[in-house]
Design a protein that fits this description.
Oligomer: single chain
Radius of gyration: 16 Å
Bound molecules: zinc ion
Number of strands: 12
Helix content: under 10%
Number of helices: 2
Order of helices and strands: EEHEEEEEEEHEEE
Distance between the termini: 30 Å
Strand content: 25-35%
Length: about 200
């Protein structure tokens, strides 16, 4: 289970390379019922590059730390926390491509980070033993997703389920709070945030 998936996506002159180096054999919690695939099949279904590009590659890695270390203030426990159990959904776009979030992010095999994914539909589980507002950047750090500075052109939209739909987030995308049923779309280039229907038990 140490395979690596390298997927290169070229679009509008920019090539984005995804390096998936984490082992994805972590177990989902029994009550969630979802066991992540060995490798997220979504990566194999991603659109292929229309043509090779001379553009520079941007390596993006999802790599969950192998041990129980605190990441951006988020702990990792042997059982999922129960003081908070809420869900948000995340969509990531790069230059017209949708970048699926793999299942099993936040599982190390020894512990489960308070922010994690069970499935590959972008649902982020916030299951914490402490009551606190968690933010998108904390999840992205656990996922090993690179930080994009203010010059990268990263924008984000959030549907907080207040009936007003998606609105652009005014501020650093990493500061977006992971509130119940928030639907977050972040990306570089043009993209259309998609509505998301949470499961009844979410
Ligand atoms: Zn959950």
């Amino acid at each position: 289970m140490d395979k690596r998936v390298v997927l290169a996506i070229a679009a509008t002159g920019v090539t984005v390379a995804f390096l998936l180096g984490r082992t994805a054999g972590a177990m989902a919690s029994p009550r969630e019922g979802a066991v992540p695939a060995l490798l997220p099949s979504v990566f194999e279904q991603a659109p292929q590059a229309p043509q090779a590009s001379q553009a520079p590659r941007i390596p993006i890695a999802f790599s969950v730390p192998p041990a129980a270390v605190l990441v951006s203030g988020v702990g990792c426990d042997s059982v999922e926390g129960e003081a908070i159990h809420i869900h948000a959904q995340l969509q990531i776009y790069f230059n017209g491509f949708s970048i699926p979030l793999p299942a099993g992010l936040g599982f190390t095999g020894r512990c489960t980070y308070w922010l994690h994914t069970h499935t590959d539909d972008g649902v982020i589980h916030v299951e914490s033993p402490v009551v606190r507002t968690f933010r998108l950047g904390q999840f992205l750090d656990i996922a090993g997703f690179p930080r994009f500075g203010s010059g990268a052109g990263m924008i984000a939209f959030v549907d907080t389920q207040d009936g007003k739909g998606f609105r652009e987030f005014d501020g650093d995308y990493r500061d977006i709070p992971l509130t119940p049923h928030a639907v977050i779309a972040m990306g570089i280039g043009e993209f259309d945030p998609q509505p998301f229907a949470f499961a009844p038990n979410q």
